[in-house]
Amino acid sequence: MKKIVLSQAHLDKRKQRKRFVLRDDIFCTILQQKMCVKDYFDFSFSFPDEVDKVIIDGMYSGDWYSVYESEILPLRQNPMLARFRDAGIDIFDEWIKHVHGRQKECWLTYRISEVDVDEDINPLPIKEEHPEWFIPAFGFTMNNMAVPKIREHKLKVALEVMRKYAFDGLDIDFERHTPFLPVGEQWEKRECVTEFMRELRTELLKIGKEQNRVIMLSARVPDCLDGCHQDGLDVEKWIKEDLVDCLTLGSRSFDVKVEEFRKLSKDVQLYACYEPYHTVDGYFAPSLEALRGIWYSHLQRGADAVEYFNWSGQGKKEMVAHYVHLYGMDPKNEDYAQFGSEDFTGVNDKEFLEKQNKTYVIDRKGGYPWGIGYGNLNADRQLPRVIENDEEVRLYVAENIKKAKRATLKLLFEELSQIPEVYFNGKKLSFLSQPHRDMQVTAEKVPPISGHPVSVRLAHGEDHSKSCTLLEADLTGMETKIGYNIIRVLTKMPISLEKVELEVKRI
Q1: Residues 49 and 183 in one domain
Q2: 108 pairs with which residues across the strands?
Q3: Would you say 19 and 304 are in contact if contact means Cβ atoms under 8 Å apart?
Q4: Residue 409: enclosing H or E segment and its boundaries?
Q5: What gap in Å lies between CA 38 and CA 44, rounded to an integer?
Q6: Does a structural domain hold residue 371?
Q7: Packing angle between helix 148-164 and helix 190-210, nearest 10 degrees?
Q8: Closest CA to 103 of 157, 168, 165
Q9: Do 234 and 119 have their domain in common?
Q10: N or C: which end of the chain has fewer CB within 10 A?
């Protein structure tokens, strides 16, 4: 196998570290908001200037229909896109112009497995001609990357768009939908995906040489190495062969194992991703303190940047009401209106975050409504769980709270008839107890696979919550480990633990 050789210019560009990366689903926003181009860009670029890099998710259903003039694909039929085309506006060109005009990098992301979005408008005859090329899941059909013709097709599409437009890099999104390999054979067939990444890297380097520019390559993968293996992604080999310049880790996880990936390479950039739209049950609209806990943990664990998906335009207060409707956000939550304001700065600054109030939480189960495998599902998370007798949960804390002005540990249980014994890192705690209802912790026996159903209820003021008991313990002055802290719960009868949060007040 011919070794990949990167130019010095390429290596130098890789060394340009980022702190704040925005991943924006531009066509979902355009098509649903029905904005004119100018209003759309004003809206989308209301995020802080500290953003270093924008990744646009513009290949929405981009496997078989295009949103640009393509020699390979027919145009996607959509009234709003037709308006842009009639006005002589090329969406990709406009985006690149606006991003570069702000001295930011502009990348394109390409979803590996998303075939039949808007199939009623854009039917896919290829599915009837070759059903064996696809993997059925959730009423959709996913691209099977074990099929050579599928890999060949996706390679042609990716290379065409990168030749045609001046994107700084291409991101391959393996997280958006899974599976992309036959279920039960993902790791066995991992080389199919590796070969695709290898061919893509080789061809992008050729295009870069022809056009006298550097084209970077990244991939969005699960939040831990075991998850990558479950879905058939040999990330270790990619890094060893220099097939990627950066990796986006996870999608909606609070607990990203950044350190596992960092051990593989000091050079590959690592972005820890958080998405508030298809998030987990219980935390659809987390507080600003909880978000800062997420960001600080990501950076403390070795991430080069924090990355956001489906979260543009939040700084425009006149658009908050729209987002409440579109994304089902809690209209009483003021935190999202702060996005893009001065109050929200420091998101990419570890030293700034260190001094702020933060809340550390344990992930709940749930995740993406369309997925088989590991990515997006949060199926291995610790909560909610029924504690039968003596069990432990682990809470990641990115700081020692000993000198905090105040620290409070909160445990939310389904309604208790008696208070359990609780130990924090071996120390028995005393609690104050009170009845409590959390509108996102519902009476459903199984948490929704996505927080979105809960968010819709919030937006409409519907209360499906169940009776709970909130226990609060004062941890002010206690030591915490930077890393996982052990919470041990002892009970004489089965009890359901729903949430664990550590509030740290510094200002």
Answers
A1: yes
A2: 56, 170
A3: yes
A4: strand 406-414
A5: 10
A6: no
A7: 20
A8: 168
A9: yes
A10: N
Last residue of a domain, one of 301, 329, 361: 361
Instruction: Give the integer Cα–Cα distance in Å for 497 and 366.
Output: 15
Asked if 218 and 170 count as a contact pair (C-beta separation under 8 A), the reply is yes
Average pLDDT for the chain: 84
Tell me which residue of 371, 338, 380, 369 sits closest to 448, measured CA to CA.
369
Q: What secondary structure letter does DSSP report for 2? A: P
Q: What is the pLDDT of residues 115-171, one digit of tens each?
A: 665 555 556 677 788 889 999 887 778 899 999 999 999 999 999 999 999 999 999
User: Cβ of 422: how many Cβ atoms within 10 Å?
Assistant: 19
Structure-token pair, residue 424: 């924090």
Q: Are residues 215 and 344 in the same domain?
A: yes
Whether residue 336 is found in the same domain as residue 433: no
Tell me: do 452 and 347 sit in the same domain: no
Tokens 């802080």 -> residue:
48
String of b and e for 475-494 (b: at least 16 CB within 10 Å)? beebebeeeebebbbebeee
Q: Which of 193, 154, 176 is closest to 73 using CA atoms?
A: 154
What token pair was written down for 186? 């993902």
Is 377 part of any domain?
A: no
CA distances from 22 to 90, 95, 187, 487 (A): 21, 13, 30, 34
Q: For residue 448, what is the domain's CATH number? A: 2.60.120
Residue 189 has φ and ψ, to the nearest 5°, of: -105, 20
Domain with residue 282: its CATH number is 3.20.20.80
Judged by phi (left if over 0) then psi (alpha if -120 to 50, else beta), residue 477 lies in: left
**Residue 238 located in a structural domain:** yes
* The pTM of the whole model exceeds 0.70: yes
Start-end of H helices in 136-274: 148-164, 190-210, 225-231, 235-240, 258-262
DSSP states of 54-120: EEE---TTTTT-BSS--SSSPBP--HHHHHHHHTT--HHHHHHHHHHHTT-EEEEEEESS---TTTT
